[in-house]
Every structure is written in C-alpha cells, then in structure tokens.
Write a structure and sequence with these properties.
The complex is a heterotrimer of chains A (about 300), B (about 650) and C (about 200). Chain A is of the alpha/beta class and about 300 residues long. Chain A is built from 16 helices and 8 strands. Chain A has 2 domains: about 120 residues, Glutathione S-transferase Yfyf (Class Pi), Chain A, domain 2 (Up-down Bundle), CATH 1.20.1050.140; about 150 residues, 3-Layer(aba) Sandwich (Rossmann fold). Chain A is globular, with a radius of gyration of 19 Å. Chain A starts with 6 loop residues before the first helix and ends with a helix. In chain B, a hairpin with an 8-residue loop joins strand 13 and strand 14. Chain B has about 650 residues and is an alpha/beta fold. Chain C has 2 domains: about 100 residues, Alpha-helical ferredoxin (Fumarate Reductase Iron-sulfur Protein, Chain B, domain 2, Orthogonal Bundle), CATH 1.10.1060; about 80 residues, no CATH class. Chain C is built from 10 helices and 1 strand; from the N terminus they run E-H-H-H-H-H-H-H-H-H-H. The N and C termini of chain C lie far apart (about 45 Å). The chains are: A alpha/beta (about 300), B alpha/beta (about 650), C mainly alpha (about 200). The interface between A and C is large, with 67 and 60 residues.
C-alpha cells in the first residue's frame, strides 16, 4: 500500500535556491483559531521534505457561508486565489477541509458548466486576473500520505507513539463530494499515517460523520448533539484523543466539549488535536512548537511518556 | 404360488425426505412386505450410483418388480424407467411412491410422516405385484406446424420455422396479419416506428415459400395428438378473387358505406370493402358482409363495376380446409381492458379520455389524424394526464401487473411533448422499467421539460363544469397532498387482458388457463412455451402480458419447441391406454359420448366398442363407466387399483 | 406544549403552480441539475445527520420543487439545517448534488428571509468584503449586533477563553493588500447578477 517513491526521488532539488513544492493556501482559520494546525503542518512537511510557500495576499475562500448567500460570489472569491496560484505556476496545497471543498468547487465548475464559468471569468477580468482551466488542488493530508509516503514517514520518526490510542476523525468535507481520497465515507489515509508514527488507531465508524460545522452558530442545540455522538464513539472505543484535519471540527469538538458535558451530563475529557501535531511531535519537533497547549482539553498527559 | 420378486428403493432426497421420514424404519418396513426380496435406502436414488443399485439388483437378484419411494413421478419416472430398461426389466414393471410432495413436504410431524410413507410404500408394492409389461409405440410425425394468430409472436415463430426448412400454416382471424403491434406508433425504448420494423417481417411471411398464410380464417376443430393433429380451418369468404385482385384500392375509394374501423380503435372510419390499414398483408380487401349494401338489399355492386381486374366475387363461399400438423403454436394475443368498466375514469363519458391503443393511433402518421395529437374538437391539448395501472394491479379488475404500461406511459409522455406544447402529468404507483435500456429511457424522458411524474393512482376523472377541463384527482403520495390536475386529455393505460374467447380457444386446443385467465404454461419458469397438451405450444401475450422483446423471444422459443417435434420425425405414444375385452362388451355404447378424446368408436360388425389407441389418453373415464367391466385402463386396472387401496389402508 | 392543530389534507390545484418556472430558476445555479431525475428513494434523508430536525425532509423538498411549490419550499426550514457535509450527495443514485440544491435554495430565500441563518450568512459576506478575510471576533460581534446584542454576554465566557488561548484577537483586523480587488469583485458580481 505504501508509496515508496519519495519526494526527493520524484523531484530532485538543485543545490541553490529550492523552488517550493506547493503554493500553500492556509485559509482564515489557520491564521487565527487554528494557528497550531498551520505551524505543525508547515514544520512537519518541511521535515518530510515538502516545501510550502504561502500564497501571497490570499483572500477568504468564502466557505459554505458564501455558497449560501451569493452563488456567483461563492465562485468568484475562491477563483481569485486559484488565479493567483496559476500565476505562480505551482499546485496548491490546502489544509482546511472547508477551503478544500470550496476551492475544488471552482475546479468542478471549470470542467463542467461553460456559461456560468464565463460569468466567473468576467468577474476575474474586472480585477485584472484570469483563470485558465482548473488548478491542481491537494489536501496536505493526502500530500503527506501519497507524495511523502508511509515508508519515508517511518524512516523519519524519532518518537514512536507506541500505545497512544487515537480516533481518526476526518470530518465531512475532506473526502466529499468526490476528491482524491480512497473513499468518500471511509477514507483510510489518516489512519495509515497515524499507524506509521506508531500510534494505535482505534476503530472509528463516525470518521466522516458531520460535526455540524458553522451551524454551531445558528443551530447550536442540534449541533451539540452531533458532537456529543462523535465524542461518545471515540470514548467508547477507548481513544485517548481524537485526531482531526479540519479547524471547524477541532473547534466544535474541543471548544464546545465543556458545553456538551454540562448539556448532556457527560464527562468527556478527550483532547482534540490536529494529526499534524502528532506527526510533528513524532518526527521529533518540539512539543511546544506543535501548539498542544492551545487546545481547551489538555493533551499533555498522553504525550508525556514519549517526550 | 409365490409372487414376483420385488425390490424397494427408498430415496433420502438429501434432507428433503430424510429430514422428516425415518429412513431406516421405512427400509426395514418395506423389507418385511410380502414378495420383497431387497429393500435399500440411498441419499439420491436418481443419481448414477443410485440407479446402479437398482440395475445391479435386477441383474443379480433377478428382480421382477421395482418400487422407488422418492419424489413425484412427474420429474423422475422417466429416469427410473430407463434404469429398469437398461437392466433388462420392462419399464412398466416399475412403480413409484411419492413420499416427498405427498408426504415429507406436507407433514409436520416426523412420526406421522414415517407412518404415511409406510402406507404409500405398501400401496406401491401391492400395485407393483400386479403390474404387467407394456410396450411403447412410436408413430410418425407430420412435418407441418400450425400457428394460430398472426401478431408479432406468430409471425416470428412462422419465420423461424420456415427458415429452418419446415412447412408452416399461419392462421389469422383478421383480414391482415400484424396484430396489435401494427397499430402502434413508436416503440420503446428505442423509438423506432412499429411499422418500420414490423412490415418487413409481414412481407417475408407473405413471400416465404414454406409459409401458407390463411387470413380472415379461423380454426374450427382440432383432433388428434402430438405429431398427428387433424385441424379444420374455416377460410371465410373475402368476396374477392385473391388471385385476380391487385390491391389497387379503387373498390375502397368508391364504396359508399362508411363504418368505424376496428383497426383505428373507433377513431377512424373504413368502407364496407376494405383493407384495415395501408401496409396490410395480404394487401387484398375483404367485403364486410354485415355492412355491405349488396348483402343487405341485393343492390349496389359499385365495387364490382369499378374493379379493374374484375376480382369481386359476391357469391364466394367460406372454404373448409382440413390439414394434418405435427405441432401447433397458439399465439392469439391479448385484448385491452375496457376502461368504461370503471366509470370513475371517465372513459366513454368524456370525449377526450382515451385508452393507450387509441393514443397509438392518434400518434401514428397513418392514423386518423395523420399523426397529430388532437382533441375531439380538432384543437391541440394544453395539458395531458397519463394514468398507469388502469385495470391492472387492482383486485377489482386484474390483479396482475400488465408489464408494458409503465414504459408505454413514459413513451406517451415523450410523444406528447414531441408533438405538442402540452404539459404532461404522469400518474404512477410504481415505475417498473425493468428491461434492457428501459431505465435509461425513463431517465431521459423524466428530465424533459414540462413532463411531471406524480406518484399516486389516478382515482377519478371529473369535468370542471365551468371550464370544461378534465380534472384528474390523485393523492401525491410523496408529498401527502391531494392534487387536482386540470387537463384537456386523459390517456388511460389500460390492462392487457386475455381475449374474451380464451376459454373457447383453450378447449379447442386442449390447453388450460391460469387464474388470471391467460393460457397456462407447463412450468412458469422452465417450460414457458409448453402446455399440458403435448405438441401444443403457446407464445406471446396469450400466455401473459408482454412487451415486444419478450413476445419475439417467446415466438422464437415456441418455434424451437415445434421444430423439436417435427424434426424428430416420430413420437412415442404411451401404451397406458384403454382396451375393450370383446367377450364382455354388451355394445351398450355408454362409453362413446363420454370419451373426451373421441377415441372410442362402435364396431358394427362385431357389435362391440373399439378404442383408437392413438387418440386415447388413458384417462380411464370409459373404464369407470362401463357397466359390464369390458373396458380396462392398462396400467391402472381394477386389480391394480384395489391392491393399491388395500395397501394404503393396511397400516 | 401547544395543542396540535387538526391535520387536514391539503388540496392542491395544479394550475396554481408553475413547476417549469421554478425548475428553471434553480437550473441557473451551477451544480443544480437532474432534479427531475430524482426517484424519491429517500437516501438523502436517511444519510442526513440533521433531517430529523427538519419539517420537510430533503426528499420531500425535491418533490415540492417538482410540483412547483416555490413559496412553500422557500418557507421551509430544510435548507437552513444543511451543514454541507455532502453525505446525501455522494450517495444519491441519480447524481443529484443535494448540497448544491440547498445552497441555491438558501441563496434565493436569503433575498427575502429574515432569520438567524440569513443574518449569519450576510454578516459573513460583509466581513469578507471589508477585510478580504474572515475574522471570527469581528464576525461574531457583528452577527450578535445584527441579531441579538444580549447574546454577546452569553458568548462572553467562551470568547474570553478563546482570547486566552490566542484563538481570537481583539485587535482591529487589517485588510489584505488586495482589499480593493475584493471590493471590485463584489461590485462586478452585483452588476452581473443585477443585469442578468
């Protein structure tokens, strides 16, 4: 299963100034609520030989909020980012599931709906930009799994997270509607990465069930229920912590865990960390630099024995 | 005097019998019966090793009778007969006890089942003791096949047999072959026009040297049996000389009498002298004597005057044709359900409520409107409703699904949109688009503009007294709302029904009907073309509702069945017939009218009854009714039956 | 609990609706197609994490669209419960993107809707227009001011903890360099949509 061709072998770098591998689109959350996801992603990937260059002057992708408010705008906003990526001449790497789905939506439009596509192109023209067909958009999780490969990860591991029980939670928008992942409902890429760093992956059937996302703002009651179910399964399966790859999931499961406990009379103390934090830690990066302290539910006690 | 040596063979049939009946007890019980010299049980007696047990015992132990206790003789009697014959024992000295269908499958309690199995085996052993050797007879087969019904099923069967080099008579009641398919416009799912694909086949039928086409004709009487049917056909007088007529059509132009054309389903007219439709085969008219002025008043004869080749024959008489056939295929088709039976649908009450075949004629370029979909007043509809399951899937009318209506409805929706700007509402209970390329066709039509599918049974059609619009009322079962849909035209997709004379036809050909009224096949899945009457096969919608692909398939299948008979050249006739013991017969003749097969005649010279063994089916009616006991049903005679009864009652 | 009203079967006169027009309106949204091919299997409803909260299930919404019940569809709460998880979309046997249908319905409804969800999506759009990026604190404060200023107090504790964790900032956001482009983009979109 594992990808043996390493990044270095696939794309040998010159001795001098290295051209980055990807333009990195962080998205708004990775600059605010999910800064630890940003830092752990960039640093881990650097250790694994992937260089990311942040897209200059990127703008908000619009997320699903814009798709719900203004159709043309919901294509035009992310299209600006894609146009600038195309100008840079590199594929794009994205870490946030919501940005990933929104940017991919523009790609889908580029391939299908010709009349609407020209409308979007017209808006870009108004700001002096153009988008020429789809842009290669990759999720950082998939880059790590596919381009780096499990063998390379195993080689680079400094701290094997032996005995750490992790529930891999992908969220909904990473593998759906249809992206590069192995299955839209039961992807396995994160499972494999976590195993490669020595962790014990617990069975987690809700791995792509929805956390409610931004509906936490408008439909809090029912969204708390969804998150309670997600926490419950992780706990029942014996997970020490939940690994995620989306800022929205992390926020809902972590920041609202206290509220869930008081609402449902539960006593969850499940740390919710980005898989890249665990990856970086396993690769020997500094625990602090990985931002474990930024979570509401502390993860420290589970990591102590590996430090 | 010791009786014949009997061997008993008890079959487990896997767990079918052994799961219920105690095999050891049964075997041991049989071994104790008088004259039984060997009794064995085996997992599958019908298998080669099972049969070998029997064969070996016949040879080594000199068995004179064999009793097999297993399944129904319907399946494996031939198997065990053959085994006996192979070992040198006359096959009629073998008797079966059915301890599966009549015992293990239908008895709850194991002990009771074992008890019953013992009784059945005892009874079979008793009968076997009195069995007599009989010899099969073979009789030659007439190489011709009769096909009744000139729709697409009959046409397909006729062509296949003719192309195989055998002779066929195709008998059609109407003036032309083509059947219901000839009335259709376009056909699903490919939308090629029915005439375009059917006409070439009709012409081939007319031209093939191996096919004798008898239109405007009916089968009157069928006698005989497989390989040797004797059939009487009435060829009704067309009132023209078919050899002289060149089909010019002048007579039809000039004929002053107009009556509704059956072919147009009441939407168009024809003359008293007519061919039903332009592509008719043969393209020769008939005179409808019921409506012709000459036959009513003795005057007119305009057609005779205008006919260029002078082909009119007013004095022509029906012709009676008697012919022998080896096999018969019945392909008499269907009758559309009459929607006026349910007044709630408005058929017959409102002008623009029509049934499916009427819509086909409206949409057909050679139909009464030249292919335009028009209301009775000549205007174009703005909205059309199509109702599925009119008469079908309804225990008030026909319980079965008519199978073609979903697809014809989808096709109608498409045709309405193709030819008009009307909105189409299709009211269905389930969408059953099961055939090859059917779902794809549905998916294509469902996306067409202004075609709306509504799930619910069209309950009734009313008229808005103010606007005159038809109101179709339906519960949209997916929304849980009651929808009332104003439309200008309602198409009722009526059920496919057995023809009204199905019972008469069934009797004529010695075949049976299933509960739904269609002709009964020998086995629903494995023998769909065979009937209970050997040598008589069925094909097409007379057996069950079918679409064109299935009908064509069954037509070809029936042809294969008929060819199997005629190519064999001879058939085996069972010797289990009745015989008259002349010395006992008093010549009372009671038996003669009772025989359902007309197999008994009276020998005036001897003054006794006589059985024609070729016609006799061995039903035993005569033997049971003979006051002097002169008639004896071979293999089922009194001695054998009484012994059997004693056996059953012994336990 | 209030006494439930006696349920009566609604009678719909089909000529009161124009299904073709509503279908056309929706067809203008990219990704919204094949609605007519829906076979009403209900896999969307059964796959949705929130359909049990809706007054009309996603399946039923499709059927209402096909019946032309525009007002009823736009007044439903169905689309406001959609979390865009695409579970329905990947399972739909006819390839209908229900998520896109929900976006489209929200967009149409948003033109007139006055509910919490509508306010949120509008505030979000305003924030992006102003800064080119989304800023949680700014978004949440503006959203609260727009809907229920008192809710700010309720949000207080979580907000404070977010601040403490560095997940939120109270400093005035800085617009991106291309903020002018974003403004122009909004204008052009408004122009194209108004002119269409």
């Amino acid at each position: 299963m594992s990808e043996t061709k390493t990044k270095d072998a696939a794309r040998p770098k010159g001795a001098g100034e290295a051209k980055p591998d990807f333009v990195f689109f962080p998205g708004c959350s990775l600059h605010s609520t999910a800064r630890e996801y940003h830092d752990s992603t960039v640093q881990s990937m650097a250790v694994l030989g992937i260089t990311l260059e942040e897209l200059d002057d990127w703008n908000c992708c619009g997320a699903t909020a814009l798709s719900s408010a203004d159709s043309l705008l919901s294509y035009a906003l992310p299209a600006r980012n894609l146009a600038m990526t195309q100008e840079r001449g590199l594929p794009m790497a994205v870490a946030c599931n919501s940005c990933f789905v929104t940017l991919n939506r523009v790609n889908a439009l580029m391939e299908t709906d010709a009349p609407y596509r020209s409308k979007v192109e017209e808006t870009l023209k108004a700001i002096g930009r153009r988008l020429d067909g789809p842009v290669e958009i990759r999720h950082t999780l998939h880059i790590i799994y596919h381009d780096v490969g499990l063998d390379r990860i195993r080689e680079k591991v400094k701290r094997r997270l032996e005995g750490l029980k992790v529930a891999p939670y992908y969220g909904c928008q990473i593998a759906r509607p249809r992206h590069e992942f192995s299955d839209p409902e039961f992807p396995t890429e994160m499972d494999d990465i976590l195993e490669a760093i020595g962790a014990e992956v617990v069975r987690y059937d809700r791995k792509t069930k929805c956390c409610g996302g931004a509906l936490m703002t408008t439909k809090e009651d029912v969204v708390l229920e969804l998150n309670e179910q997600l926490l419950r399964e992780a706990q029942v399966r014996g997970a020490d912590l939940i690994a995620v790859c989306c800022p929205m999931c992390q926020m809902n499961l972590d920041a609202y865990q206290g509220k869930i406990n008081s609402r449902f009379g539960t006593d969850y103390k499940l740390p919710v960390v980005y898989f890249t934090q665990l990856l970086g830690f396993a690769l020997g990066l500094d625990e602090k630099a990985m931002g474990f302290g930024r979570g509401f539910v502390p993860a420290g006690k589970h990591l102590k024995k590996y430090a | 005097m010791p009786g014949p040596k009997i061997g008993v063979y008890v079959c487990h049939c896997g767990s079918n019998i052994a799961g219920k009946v105690d095999m050891d007890a049964l075997r041991e019980f049989a071994a104790e019966l008088p004259d039984v010299v060997v009794s064995r049980d085996y997992k599958y007696m019908c298998s080669d090793p099972g049969q070998d047990l029997i064969k070996a015992d016949i040879k080594e132990k000199g068995l004179e009778r064999v009793v097999v206790a297993s399944c129904s003789p319907r399946m494996h009697e031939p198997t065990f007969k053959r085994a006996c014959q192979d070992a040198g024992l006359n096959p009629y000295l073998m008797e079966m006890a059915n301890i599966r269908e009549q015992c293990s499958w239908v008895t709850e309690d194991g002990e009771a089942a074992t008890q019953k199995a013992k009784a059945l085996v005892h009874s079979a052993v008793n009968k076997a003791r009195h069995l007599e050797p009989l010899e099969d007879k073979t009789v030659p087969v007439d190489p011709k096949t009769l096909i009744v019904g000139g729709g697409i099923a009959g046409i397909e069967a006729a062509l296949k047999i003719a192309e195989a080099g055998k002779e066929v008579y195709l008998v059609e009641r109407e003036p032309s072959i083509g059947g219901n398919m000839a009335k259709l416009d376009k056909t699903f799912p490919t939308l090629d026009c029915a005439a375009c694909i059917l006409t070439p086949k009709m012409v081939s039928v007319a031209q093939h040297p191996n096919i004798t086409l008898l239109t405007y004709s009916e089968v009157e009487k069928v006698e005989g049996y497989i390989g040797n049917f004797e059939v009487t056909i009435r060829k009704r007088a067309r009132s023209i000389d078919e050899k002289l007529c060149n089909g010019c059509g002048t007579c039809q132009e000039k004929c002053p009498i107009k009556v509704p054309n059956e072919f147009e389903e009441g939407l168009g007219m024809r003359k008293a002298i007519y061919t039903p439709f332009p592509q008719a085969v043969p393209n020769k008219p008939v005179i409808d004597r019921e409506n012709c002025t000459y036959y009513k008043t003795g005057k007119c004869k305009i057609c005779e005057r205008v006919c260029p080749p002078k082909a009119i024959r007013f004095d022509q008489e029906d012709e009676i044709i008697t012919e022998k056939f080896g096999a018969i295929i019945v392909a008499t088709g269907y009758q559309l359900f009459d929607p006026s039976v349910g007044p709630q649908w408005g058929y017959g009450r409102y002008d623009n409520v029509i049934h499916g075949l009427q819509f086909e004629r409206l949409s057909n370029a050679s139909g009464p409107t030249g292919g335009k979909i028009l209301l009775k007043d000549g205007s174009e509809p703005e909205a059309v409703a199509i109702l599925h399951c009119v008469g079908s899937r309804d225990t008030n009318y026909a319980e079965y699904c008519s199978r073609i209506c979903c697809m014809t409805s989808v096709k109608f929706a498409h045709l309405v949109r193709e030819k008009t700007n009307a909105k189409v509402y299709d009211l269905y209970m389930d969408m059953r688009t099961f055939g090859k390329q059917y779902e794809e066709f549905y998916n294509r039509v469902v996306a067409e503009r202004d075609i709306y599918f509504i799930r619910g049974k069209g309950a009734e059609v009313m008229q808005d007294p103010e606007t005159g619009k038809l109101l179709v009322r339906v519960e949209d079962t997916l929304l849980g709302v009651f929808r009332e849909i104003p439309v200008d035209m309602v198409i009722l997709n009526a059920a496919i029904c057995p023809r009204p004379d199905a019972q008469e036809v069934a009797q004529k050909f010695g075949i049976q009907r299933s509960a739904d009224g269609f002709f009964l096949e020998y086995h629903l899945k494995l023998e769909p073309m065979k009937t209970a009457n050997d040598g008589v096969f069925i094909a097409g919608t007379c057996q069950s509702p079918k679409d064109i692909p299935d009908t064509v398939g069954q037509g070809a299948g029936a042809a294969a069945e008929a060819l199997k008979v005629v190519f064999a050249g001879q058939v085996t006739v069972t010797p289990t017939t009745a015989e008259v013991r002349d010395t006992l017969c008093s010549g009372c003749r009671i038996c003669i009218p009772l025989c359902p097969y007309n197999a008994i005649t009276f020998d005036e010279a001897k003054g006794v009854a006589q059985v024609n063994e070729a016609l006799c089916k061995g039903c035993g009616t005569c033997a049971a009714s003979c006051p002097s006991g002169a008639l004896r049903a071979k293999h089922f005679d009194n001695r054998q039956l009484y012994a059997q009864i004693e056996g059953v009652c012994a336990e | 609990m209030e006494q439930a009203e006696a349920k009566t079967l609604e009678v719909i006169r089909q000529d009161a609706f124009d299904p073709a027009k509503f279908l056309e309106e929706l067809d203008a949204f990219p990704g919204v197609d094949k609605i007519k091919n829906c076979m009403q299997c209900g896999v969307c409803t059964a796959s949705c994490p929130l359909s049990h909260e809706m007054k009309e299930t996603p399946r039923k919404i499709i059927e209402m669209i096909r019946a032309g019940m525009r007002d009823e569809v736009l007044a439903s709460d169905t689309m406001w419960y959609c979390a865009s998880c695409y579970a329905c979309t990947v399972r739909c046997p006819q390839g209908i993107s229900m998520a896109e249908v929900m976006y489209a319905l929200r967009t149409i409804a948003l033109r007139t809707a006055r509910n919490l969800s509508a306010a949120f999506y509008k505030t979000f759009s305003d924030t992006v227009r102003r800064y080119g990026r989304m800023h949680e604190s700014d978004l949440m404060i503006r959203f609260a001011l727009r809907t229920n200023p008192l809710s700010l107090l309720k949000m207080g504790p979580l907000g404070l903890r977010m601040l403490a964790k560095g997940k939120m900032s109270l400093s005035v956001p800085t617009p991106i360099r291309g903020a002018k482009e974003i403004g122009k983009l909004y204008e052009k979109v408004a122009e194209l949509e108004g002119g269409a």
